[in-house]
């Protein structure tokens, strides 16, 4: 039995630049560094003297712009771009961003990272009033709200629309004379500001893009904030002051690149600290520590350092295989795991192995890797997870929509251990997670969203509330899957 994601839910990457002679080219390289955030499709919209030009398609950014002419036609000194995360049943090019809207009074481009929790009800209400949608993405809703706002100025219309959408969102919008960036009141998704030496301003989902293009980090966009960039420079506004930091903890655990910095915390350092804390909480009698490439290598090195066990490269990843967690169906995830990893027999044979991984979602990957290590001759395989048990869905932009997709929501630690075939299984505590990341915030949970671990959501769930409560006590036996 397999389960597919039934609704649009994206973990994407956005990038924008203003005031650069090669804006589209810089955006291409920026998106390339954000490719880990989405591999289904990509697009760029450039601004050439108040005319917006676009190219988008399905596939990786290098495939979308394989023909040099596709990038060369995107002339101008400003651009925004988007890499899209794959979901089931939504591969239409109509859902590839940035969206480009042509109105009688001008053009607007829009890109979005996150997921709106009231998208279904907003869309139904807008359609009743005559709105026509060109995609199935919740991103398009914002533009309808802007155009229907009774406010007099564009910035006030934008604020009005932002206060109507709920959930997790990082928006990038480009008009003929400005770029706007906006972050939801909880700051679920990361978004940062950078600058070139020539004064050009850059906005990116992650700071790793700044290093690639040669820009310097300036600061992070704050929850509830609007950033405005035009020829006069950078300015700031607020669409709400009712904010409370709740950055997605999975950014530090899994999604972000290790060389990125999110709210002052380097992702590699955070992951290494997670591994160290895990070693303190889960003392395992073993011979070597092996990390699961690539997002778990930092945690594995931390575990090895703290435990005093040698760190070995016992697993090798085919770097040309996409991440299995962001494959749209269980069947594709299974195939992806078979292709992406191999165990090094000469390293693990006869050894008691601590296999450090960042998380267990459905158990598919963990089960396969344990089998790989055993087939390579490991005498024992102890699985240590550098995050707490994933027991609850995420509604803010991660591809976990129901509890029946989560093995830990349906089985005890002992049962999960048996299902994946490990000799032992350990998870990091929630307190260990929060303290290891160490955000300097007086917000609950240290400024992190840990709802997928404890079920305490920092916002109302709106359209998801009824379904979440209805499925709260439903169980799936993963041993039969």
From TrEMBL:
Q: Which InterPro entries does the record cross-reference, listed alphabetically?
A: GATase_2_dom, Ntn_hydrolases_N, PRTase-like, PRTase_dom, PurF, PurF_N
Q: Which residues bind Mg(2+)?
A: 295, 357-358
Q: In which pathway does it act?
A: Purine metabolism; IMP biosynthesis via de novo pathway; N(1)-(5-phospho-D-ribosyl)glycinamide from 5-phospho-alpha-D-ribose 1-diphosphate: step 1/2
**UniProt-annotated catalytic positions:** 12 (nucleophile)
- Residue ranges constituting the Glutamine amidotransferase type-2 domain according to the UniProt record: 12-232
Binding note for cofactor: Binds 1 Mg(2+) ion per subunit.
- GO MF annotations for this entry? amidophosphoribosyltransferase activity; magnesium ion binding
Q: Which reaction does it catalyse?
A: 5-phospho-beta-D-ribosylamine + L-glutamate + diphosphate = 5-phospho-alpha-D-ribose 1-diphosphate + L-glutamine + H2O
Q: Does the keyword Glycosyltransferase apply?
A: yes
Q: Which family does it belong to?
A: In the C-terminal section; belongs to the purine/pyrimidine phosphoribosyltransferase family.
Name of the protein this chain belongs to = Amidophosphoribosyltransferase
Protein species of origin: Streptococcus zalophi
């Amino acid at each position: 039995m397999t389960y597919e994601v039934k609704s649009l839910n994206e973990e994407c990457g956005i990038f924008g630049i203003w005031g650069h002679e090669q804006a589209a080219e810089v955006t291409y390289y920026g998106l390339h560094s954000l490719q880990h955030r989405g591999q289904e499709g990509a697009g760029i919209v450039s601004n050439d003297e108040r005319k917006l030009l676009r190219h988008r398609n399905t596939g990786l950014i290098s495939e979308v712009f394989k023909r040099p002419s596709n990038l060369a036609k995107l002339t101008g000194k400003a651009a925004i771009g988007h890499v899209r995360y794959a979901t089931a049943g939504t591969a239409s090019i109509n859902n590839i961003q940035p969206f480009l809207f042509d109105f009688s009074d001008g053009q607007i481009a829009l890109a979005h990272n996150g997921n709106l929790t009231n998208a279904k009800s907003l869309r139904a209400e807008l359609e009743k009033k005559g709105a026509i949608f060109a995609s199935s993405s919740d991103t398009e809703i914002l533009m309808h709200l802007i155009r229907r706002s009774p406010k007099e100025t564009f910035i006030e219309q934008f604020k009005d629309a932002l206060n109507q959408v709920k959930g997790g969102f990082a928006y990038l919008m480009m008009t003929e004379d400005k770029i706007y960036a906006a972050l939801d009141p909880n700051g679920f998704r990361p978004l940062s500001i950078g600058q070139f030496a020539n004064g050009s301003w850059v906005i990116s989902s992650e700071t790793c893009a700044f290093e690639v293009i040669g820009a310097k980090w300036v600061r992070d966009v704050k929850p509830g904030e609007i950033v405005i960039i035009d020829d006069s420079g950078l300015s700031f506004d607020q669409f709400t002051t009712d904010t409370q930091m709740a950055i997605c903890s999975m950014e530090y655990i899994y999604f972000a690149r290790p060389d990125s910095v999110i709210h002052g915390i380097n992702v590699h350092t955070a992951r290494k600290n997670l591994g160290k804390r895990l070693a303190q909480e889960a003392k395992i009698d073993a011979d070597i520590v092996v990390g699961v490439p690539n997002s778990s290598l930092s945690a594995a090195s931390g575990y090895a350092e703290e435990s005093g066990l040698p760190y070995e490269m016992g697993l090798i990843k085919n770097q040309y295989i996409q991440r299995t967690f962001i494959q749209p169906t269980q069947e594709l995830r299974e195939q992806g795991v078979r292709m992406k990893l191999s165990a090094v027999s000469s390293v693990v044979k006869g050894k008691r192995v601590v296999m450090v991984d960042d998380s267990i979602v459905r158990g598919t990957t963990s089960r396969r890797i344990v089998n790989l290590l055993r087939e390579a001759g490991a005498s024992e395989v102890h699985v240590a997870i550098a995050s707490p048990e994933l027991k609850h869905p995420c509604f803010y932009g991660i591809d976990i929509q129901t509890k029946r997709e989560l093995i830990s929501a349906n089985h005890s630690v002992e049962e999960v251990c048996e299902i994946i075939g490990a000799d032992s299984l350990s998870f990091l505590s929630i307190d260990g997670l929060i303290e290891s990341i160490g955000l300097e915030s007086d917000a609950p949970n240290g400024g992190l969203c840990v709802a997928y671990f404890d079920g305490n959501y920092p916002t109302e769930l709106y359209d998801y509330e009824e379904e979440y409560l209805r499925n709260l006590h439903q169980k799936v036996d993963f041993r039969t899957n």
